[in-house]
Amino acid sequence: MKLSVRVKTGKHTAKVERIDVTHYEVHVTARPEKGRANTAVLRALARHLDIASSRLRVISGHTSQSKIVEIY
């Protein structure tokens, strides 16, 4: 399953907002440096979806605010 994720970095609090079945907006406190924000996004989504973060991976948008994340 693929999820479309819009990321907002450098926020004071981390949160996940579900827009619809496959679209999410994720706020993370991490800055987009050395992949830290991507890691934070995957952890936040994993907590929200109640799955292991190892089951998620960014397949598109590694350096963009718009990402495609795959659950496998």
From TrEMBL:
InterPro entries: DUF167, YggU-like_sf
Pfam families found in the cross-reference section: DUF167 (PF02594)
Superkingdom assignment: Bacteria
Cross-referenced NCBIfam families: DUF167 family protein
UniProt family annotation: Belongs to the UPF0235 family.
Protein name (database record): Uncharacterized protein
Organism: Candidatus Yanofskybacteria bacterium RIFCSPLOWO2_01_FULL_49_25
Lineage, opening ranks: Bacteria, Candidatus Yanofskyibacteriota
